[in-house]
Amino acid sequence: GVRWASRTGHQASRLLEAHIAIACLASACRMTRVLAVLESAFALIWIAGAAIAGAIVWVWRWHWDPDCACTWRSDEGAVHTSASILASFVVCLGAYGASAAAARTSGGLARRRVASFTRMYILAALLTYGPYVLWSAVHVRDERLSSALLAVSWAFLELQGAFNAAVYALQSRHLR
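^ that's the sequence the OP posted. Answer follows.
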């Protein structure tokens, strides 16, 4: 239970961090009412994604083990292991894509910049979630290579906050 809560709490903090960045962006750009509603919908999408990921973790009893810095993964559980990460990944790309499309069609220089930086957030999501999804989808027979790939995948996942913070800092500077 504690380990599950630790992993789920870690995911929830990432989702909250992303929502805070979008909320700050909304206020920085003085968005119209339509984009303010979109920002609220974006928050609900993230909450739904966190709930889906948490449910998958709870149902299949998969969790992050902070003591050994590894995931529990059984032979039949490769799909289960990656399910919560994959759910977050899909929600992330869908929400960012919807945000970019709405900002692009709204017009105005600031909104075009929002769309541009949203595409940068999508790239950050691909870079951070992608290696883990790939690792869990491809079975590597060599245990040492598999462990090394897992370590690299988790390193990229842990860098997600840094990538998002860098994009947010860049866009804040650019939008002044």
